[in-house]
Write a structure and sequence with these properties.
three-stranded antiparallel β-sheet, 15 helices, 11 strands, eight-stranded mixed β-sheet, 396 residues, 2 domains, disordered C terminus, alpha/beta, Rossmann fold
Length: 396
């Protein structure tokens, strides 16, 4: 089972765990995917997500203390596993989310850097209330933007493979669903994180802004400072509507799968090209050796007729026979190598499975605009030709 590692960065209580709980819940409603997602073997993570989802669906009083929407944030690393596969068959893909609270970036930077190097995707969760409300008055307090950008800049100094960086505003309903212009939030985010986004773009990574409405029908009301100096966020539900009507959480999964499957297909295509090139090279060498063997056999046949008449030719004949045997050995070696290459090609071709194709089809459910969604850089890393065209070109 292939494992995809996703690192999640963001302040404690911003809503990363809630987003994952909603992601799992919403993907189950994508009825035409032909795929199923289940919790992994991590019982603790599974229990946390199920409890968080229950709270999101039932809690109606959203007078909350920062951080979180009435829900406690984590102060330690958490790992959440999702398994994906065809309905009725064994899972083939593991999505492993590593959740780190904001303070860990400065206190445990080396440990997180190691995880990021191993990750295919990095999610930067952003408290939209802190970013937008009262002209971003509490953005620095809530989101630690300087620490996050410094950490990402350090990552860029390492030699790492191309990654997907998702900037995900959470608790954004007020500025997406109930705003006249939902692009304002994305525009503000791009201003605040412009420096690091440019550097990620220049390094060739894929970057996107993907606002997630984890509840759907809430609006930010006000900030209040309590007697302990803690800033509280106050929310209100929309009259006549249930609070829980999330939107776009599943898009996080679609973006992750879109990026990973594109890279996966590219990798397979490259391997097929390399193996096919090697196969052609071996075939050419085999043809050359077979031609030499044919020539040796012809000369040996001629010598065989004269051997009885001129015994002195026997020594010369033995040399020719030895040369032929050496050529036969080279031929046998090349044929074994060619057979191995053909077997490896066959294994690569077998990777064309219903699972890969259905997984790839999720790419076409991915939104590229609307609701504040915007691809900032690396769009070609998602869409370098359609999956089916790429597969056909690979003869998979």
């Amino acid at each position: 089972m292939k494992t995809i590692n996703i690192t999640m960065l963001g302040p404690r209580g911003v809503g990363k765990t809630s987003m994952l709980a909603v992601l799992y819940d919403q993907f189950k409603k994508v009825d035409d995917s032909g795929l199923v997602i289940t919790h992994g073997d991590n019982d603790v993570g599974s229990r946390i997500l199920k409890e968080r989802l229950r709270e999101l669906k039932t809690r109606m009083d959203f007078i909350t203390e920062k951080p979180g929407i009435g829900l406690e944030g984590t102060s330690e690393e958490r790992v959440f596993d999702f398994k994906m596969g065809l309905i009725g068959k064994s899972p083939e893909l593991m999505l492993r989310f590593h959740d780190y609270p904001g303070g860990w970036i400065s206190d445990n930077a080396s440990a997180i850097e190691s995880k990021v190097r191993q990750s295919h995707v990095v999610i930067v969760a952003i408290d939209a209330v802190g970013l937008m409300a009262e002209d971003g008055k509490y953005h620095t307090l809530f989101n630690y933007p300087d620490e996050v950008m410094e950490f990402l800049e350090n990552i860029l100094q390492m030699q790492t493979e191309k990654k997907l960086f998702l900037f995900v505003p959470i608790k954004c309903e007020t500025w997406i669903k109930y705003a006249d212009d939902p692009t304002i939030l994305t525009s503000r985010l791009k201003v605040e994180y412009n420096s690091i986004m440019n550097k990620l773009r220049q390094a060739g990574h894929a970057v996107a802004v993907l606002p997630v409405q984890t509840l759907g029908n809430i609006k930010f009301a006000r900030f209040e400072e309590d007697e302990n100096g803690i800033i509280r966020e106050y929310f209100k539900t929309i009259a006549g509507r249930k609070a829980y009507e999330p939107k776009n959480a599943e898009q996080v999964l679609f973006y992750i799968v879109s990026f990973v499957i594109a890279q996966y297909i590219h990798d397979i295509a490259d391997q097929v090209d390399q193996k096919a090139g090697r196969e052609r090279e071996l075939k050419q060498k085999l043809d050359e050796i077979k031609d030499k063997i044919r020539q040796k056999e012809e000369s040996i046949g001629w010598l065989d007729e004269w051997l009885a008449k001129l015994p002195i030719i026997g020594e010369f004949f033995g040399d020719k026979q030895k040369e032929k045997e050496e050529l036969e050995q080279q031929k046998n070696l090349l044929e074994r190598q060619k057979s191995q290459i053909e077997q490896e090609l066959s294994q690569l071709q077998s990777k064309k499975s219903d699972f890969i194709l259905k997984l790839g089809n999720l790419r076409f459910k991915r939104k590229i605009s609307g609701d504040g969604i915007e691809i900032i850089a690396g769009g070609e890393l998602f869409d370098a030709g359609s999956l089916k065209d790429k597969v056909s070109a690979m003869q998979l």
